[in-house]
Amino acid sequence: MDFTAQPKPATALCGVVSADGKIAYPPGVKEITDKITTDEMIKRLKMVVKTFMDMDQDSEDEKQQYLPLALHLASEFFLRNPNKDVRLLVACCLADIFRIYAPEAPYTSHDKLKDIFLFITRQLKGLEDTKSPQFNRYFYLLENLAWVKSYNICFELEDCNEIFIQLFRTLFSVINNSHNKKVQMHMLDLMSSIIMEGDGVTQELLDSILINLIPAHKNLNKQSFDLAKVLLKRTVQTIEACIANFFNQVLVLGRSSVSDLSEHVFDLIQELFAIDPHLLLSVMPQLEFKLKSNDGEERLAVVRLLAKLFGSKDSDLATQNRPLWQCFLGRFNDIHVPVRLESVKFASHCLMNHPDLAKDLTEYLKVRSHDPEEAIRHDVIVTIITAAKRDLALVNDQLLGFVRERTLDKRWRVRKEAMMGLAQLYKKYCLHGEAGKEAAEKVSWIKDKLLHIYYQNSIDDKLLVEKIFAQYLVPHNLETEERMKCLYYLYASLDPNAVKALNEMWKCQNMLRSHVRELLDLHKQPTANCSAMFGKLMTIAKNLPDPGKAQDFVKKFNQVLGDDEKLRSQLELLISPTCSCKQADVCVREIARKLANPKQPTNPFLEMVKFLLERIAPVHIDSEAISALVKLMNKSIEGTADDEEEGVSPDTAIRSGLELLKVLSFTHPTSFHSAETYESLLQCLRMEDDKVAEAAIQIFRNTGHKIETDLPQIRSTLIPILHQKAKRGTPHQAKQAVHCIHAIFTNKEVQLAQIFEPLSRSLNADVPEQLITPLVSLGHISMLAPDQFASPMKSVVANFIVKDLLMNDRSTGEKNGKLWSPDEEVSPEVLAKVQAIKLLVRWLLGMKNNQSKSANSTLRLLSAMLVSEGDLTEQKRIRTYIGTIYLINIECLRQIFAQKLHKALVKLLLPLEYMAIFALCAKDPVKERRAHARQCLLKNISIRREYIKQNPMATEKLLSLLPEYVVPYMIHLLAHDPDFTRSQDVDQLRDIKECLWFMLEVLMTKNENNSHAFMKKMAENIKLTKDAQSPDESKMNEKLYTVCDVALCVINSKSALCNADSPKDPVLPMKFFTQPEKDFCNDKSYISEETRVLLLTGKPKPAGVLGAVNKPLSATGRKPYVRSTGAETGSNINVNSELNPSTGNRSRQFFSPLVFVTITHYLLVVGFFLFFVFNFYLFMIVTQREGEREADTQAEGETGSMHREPDVGFNPGSPKITPWAKGRHQTAAPPRDPQLVLF
């Protein structure tokens, strides 16, 4: 607006004049009116400014002289002048006027004062441009106002708040990074004087300060934030009450309209707390109130705020305000998921910045580590691992234990985070040793725990363990010597279960390499074998993540291999036994490069191929690595290694090193073929440690196939040592020496003869302690070379083993009251006889394809030993020892038998009928063994079902593969159980029912292809047949039908789906059941209704495996089967034991002797190969007279009902499946013997 064009009254221009009617101007300054030009006005005003600038408050005459001029300069003409230079000069004059005339301003009108200060405030905007020629004048204006505190005059005005708000906004808007500290200081002086000397701070004025703390404004102008921050610190005592009132209005009273900043209260509280906690002394109790709000989003906002306040580095809020801290901790258990999640995220910063609060957080993190929400459990792990990576001292063992527990979480994302976090901690503190030995010791358990996870069934878990091993436990990118040193001492420090897991990992990788090698061999064939190739592709896909999707990718990869010969050659090199680690790395990168698609950033196909390549690539072991391992072991033998510094004793390092080499000799035999390696192994053979020598022989056996042709010097040195070990070494060394000679030498017949002849001539039963090693050697020689030593071995067996050793007792055995005794407590004669029996078995195994009559006679001898409990002479002197080895009421034998049975079944080496034996495990009195047997059963069933799915040709052999076909074998076995003597005895029927349910529960977990109806149909069809082994014995058939009725009773009670139509008519094994007769209908019920009700709803005997371990089936109509506790059964002695007191103290057999004979002839005596012999013997046993069977049963089987433990608690070390709390992974703990789980 052009003010000069407007007519002005004279008084407006002249202001207040002197007595003579004129305004007094400084010397040399002419009158300033609107008649002059702007430039001339500026020139005259500058002189006026100079005059006022030089005046001080004591110049009374000048003050009176220039009072009209002061009033003139406050006229509208100057205050509204369009020229900014004019306005600036006038503002400087007015500022000096306030300074000169203080404390009484020459302006008495409130409106005039308001106009003047608003005018001056507007001029302060010129401070923004520090490069302006007039900036010094603007700075002078600011300095003058701050020094004199001119704005304090406005306190007398009614609407002074408008002036102050305008001033504050102006100063906050113009401050920038080009201003020096003096500018900021004068601004602070000016604003702080207004705050501290006024009667209070209005909400609008407070808003003008606080708005600069909001993150959006803070990011736009950092200097205004700093200015507000310093201003608040300086005025904390005055402004704290105003701030408290603001937050009280918004937080407590909910009056958000009091300020435009109401929606930013939590941001403001955070910034104010960071500036000075004293600003919020009255606000914190209000936050405790908001933490208990019914609005989840509001609680979330408060939690986010307090998380920042408590977690900030220099904050002592938790110690200064304990009630608020405890209230905040309560939000870890908030019902609102985002609130719990935010609380967990806060814990990481708190642990890092306030280690003293870890104790308070531990219990809450423990609860949240079991949270039902996956994201919360995941963040608990991230919180703990993040703090631990910053400093291991920040987290206690309990917090690390939470992460350890989450490695078994039911969700893959949580398990992966826990495993990777632990792996990173191990690498940082154990491998790199960043925090010293104490920290390394604190996390030394991680390596074992991570390897234990390889026991899980999930392929994702296995692959992640392999990745962790290659990147964190033994980083593959290390130099060979460093990498092997890491592996050497890692293997020596692992616990037994972790060692087995690591061995299994190498075994699985080697097996996958073999599958890929076989696939490449199929590509080399002139004509494609589609079925064989398809089966191989399915096998490979099962070893990759998400086997369903992996099948398609593997097929695509196979097609690429068929089209690209160069790719095939790269893959062949990768899986070649001679491939080095460096070559493997190059091959992997080259194959990945060929399969990469630049146009496709995310390539699932390439990722899947990388998974396959990482599993089969030899990234750790090659010839150079084996040589480095051998050198490390040599240093341990010489005593120059760093064993003690690594926390391993030299003996442990040597023994573990050889065990490591022995395992690697199976998976990487070619890498051992060097004179240097074999020289070191020969040195181990000469050591006094029997285990070391035994392992060295095994390594020679596995890797020495080319020694005879390539290393004659090693051969000439090795042969005498092997002969010596076979003749005078330990039994284990003798066994390995014989097998080593047979495996690596072409003239093995000559070598074995040189051992056999002197040993056979030197056998002397009068010195039994010198018989054990010769018997072991002779037994293995007869098994490996049966044709060569058939005649002399027959003579040794007949004349020495049987007549001289087994039939004669040279010492008197003493009973020690133990069920099982270690070898050290057994006499040499008994040990010799045990080895003699093993020799007979090995001799039989060697003759498995020989039609000699010696086999039958030897079988009869072994059977007689079982029946007589090892006492062939009936003198009852060695029964305590030989008998206890084979009697099935011994815990060790049960475990061994279960292992052998499981191992053969899981490899499909035994027919399906042998799986029925697992039903008898329900009688085992030890809960852990029952649970273990169930695990084995689950494994076997899952493998068979998977095999049927993966092999289309298997549908033709369902009778021998389909798990449901075990039902007729199980029914037949239980019908022939010698413990089952009376078909109407409730206790015996209860045992039959428990055995049936032990098997049926696993089979009925899923109703695949209407399997419930199929099993019911099988049981019904059996009732239409007769026992093929005793078709004319009515009592035997009645027991068979009774077992069928019990099975039908169980199936009907547990499944409502069994009444549907069977998908197909089941086929019954002809060996056990006759063909159904025409017009034969067996609708009779062989168990009474009362018995049926008692079996289903009565008080059965307790058994942990059916109660605590097994999950109840959830199909509609199933009734839970509840076992009674030991107290409910009252006694573990049944009616029969009461009638026969003399047998009351004898325990019930797990299997009766006769049933055990039929089983152990195959597994424990003859082996897995004599099917025809076993079946012959089975027919012979089951056709014995019923009276003899009942007599033996009465004496050894029915003396008392088996005592079962109540289903309370569980053993954490046992491999049974126990439901976790919410959020926990329902999985098996590392098994007591991993060999039973991993195959």
Helix content: 55-70%
Number of helices: 61
Which residues form runs of ≥5 with pLDDT under 50? 1-21, 874-889, 1100-1239
Q: Radius of gyration from the CA trace? A: 47 Å
Query: How much beta, percentage-wise?
Result: under 5%
- Distance from first to last alpha carbon: 95 Å
Sheet with most strands: none
Mean pLDDT: 78
Quaternary structure: single chain
Shape summary: elongated
In short:
This is PDS5 cohesin associated factor A. With 1239 residues, this protein is mostly helical.
Explain this structure.
The protein is mainly alpha-helical. 62% of the residues lie in helices and 0% in strands. The chain is built from 61 helices and no strands. The chain starts with 9 loop residues before the first helix and ends in a 43-residue tail after the last helix. The model is unreliable at 1-21, 874-889 and 1100-1239 (pLDDT under 50).
